[in-house]
Specification:
By secondary structure, the chain is an alpha/beta fold. Helix content is about 40%, strand content about 25%. The protein is built from nine helices and 16 strands. The protein has an eight-stranded mixed beta sheet, sandwiched between helices. A two-stranded antiparallel sheet has the order 3-4. A two-stranded antiparallel ribbon has the order 6-9. The structure holds adenosine-5'-diphosphate and N-acetyl-L-glutamyl 5-phosphate. GO terms for molecular function: acetylglutamate kinase activity; ATP binding.
Length: about 290
């Protein structure tokens, strides 16, 4: 990034982001490297000092996988969602709340901010219901998949987020919802981030991951798609270009832009200052998804 050029174009962006709520989804794959994790959180604290109101929703897929393997369990995903039995749910809660969220809050403090870790049951934030079994093609065979303790959002209650933001805190949300019976449910972090962004009428949603954005071929950087609309997203899913963890990311982006939020940005959190480059300069560095 050419620093002097970037400073020149920052002012209009800084004005736009004053008091603007920005939901930042920090993906597990973007956090594998501790230095990248710390740098991303530093950028989020910088954004706060520049006048924006960041809300973090974090993932932790690779950390959950590693813990499951240590406990002798094999992770299983269907359509980008982790099939979650009772024991897996316990591991998910332990890793997301005990490790990832706590670590993000410490990094926020280290960089001079104030983070508050929360799950769906805190302040009635995310009311969810258990996802119904779904048909999926596995190994070429149509199979009915019971996702177990996987949830989908019923309602977001943004009151607690507004209280925290008005008091200068950065909310750090683990993607765990709870249902009417008080059960915890494992939510996909991209879906939770999208639901939260829509409910609080955020200005933007930014998803930090380990690829440069949506690509025609994820192994080739030059195939990055800088701009996508809803119709193009559906087409890429249908053609199988978008697969695995990118599916919930794109489906959630579609519902976010449909809800009226201007844009969703998918960027590579391992690029130094990716977040600031994406939000404060004219030229984006990843994929920007808009309605039309
Ligand atoms: N068309 C695509 N372009 C880019 N990445 C893709 C695409 N299709 C699938 N992917 C996969 O999606 C992954 C990002 O999603 P995910 O694994 O859920 O990351 P995170 O943990 O950061 O949310 C990439 O690492 C890549 O393997
Ligand atoms: C239902 C479901 O799949 N939940 C996810 C929650 C974490 C997550 O989404 O993490 P990433 O953003 O790093 O992928 C999981 O168990 O992996």
């Amino acid at each position: 990034m050419d620093v002097s050029e970037s400073f020149g174009e920052m002012l209009p962006w800084l004005k736009k982001y004053q008091e603007a709520v920005i939901v930042i989804k920090v993906g597990g794959h973007a956090m594998v490297d501790p230095a990248a994790r710390s740098s991303m959180i530093k950028d989020i604290v910088t954004l706060k000092y520049l006048g924006a109101r960041p809300v973090i929703v974090h993932g932790g897929g690779p950390e959950i996988d590693a813990m499951m393997k240590r406990m002798g369990k094999t992770p299983k995903f269907v359509s980008g969602l982790r099939v979650t039995d009772e024991e897996t749910l316990e591991i998910v809660r332990m890793v997301l709340v005990g490790n990832v969220s706590a670590d993000i809050c410490s990094l926020i403090s280290k960089h001079g901010g104030n983070g508050v870790g929360m799950v769906g049951s805190d302040g009635d934030l995310i009311v969810a219901r258990r996802k119904a079994p779904e048909k999926a093609v596995i190994d070429g065979k149509e199979t009915e998949v019971d996702f177990g303790w996987v949830g989908e959002t019923v309602r977001i209650n943004p009151k607690i987020l507004n209280i925290l933001m008005e008091n200068e805190y950065i909310p750090v949300i683990s993607p765990i919802g709870y249902d009417a019976e008080g059960n915890c449910l494992n939510l996909n972090a991209d879906t939770a981030a999208g639901d939260i962004a829509a409910a609080i009428n955020a200005r933007s949603l930014v998803s930090l991951t380990d690829v440069d954005g949506v690509m025609m071929d994820p192994s080739k950087k030059e195939t990055l798609l800088s701009q996508l609309n809803i119709a193009q997203c559906y087409d890429l899913i249908e053609k199988g270009v978008i697969s695995k963890g990118m599916i919930p990311k794109i489906l959630s982006s579609i519902s976010v832009v449909k809800s009226g939020i201007q844009s969703v940005h998918i960027i590579n959190g391992n690029i130094p200052h990716a977040l600031l480059q994406e939000l404060l300069t004219d030229k984006g560095i990843g994929t920007c998804i808009t309605k039309e």
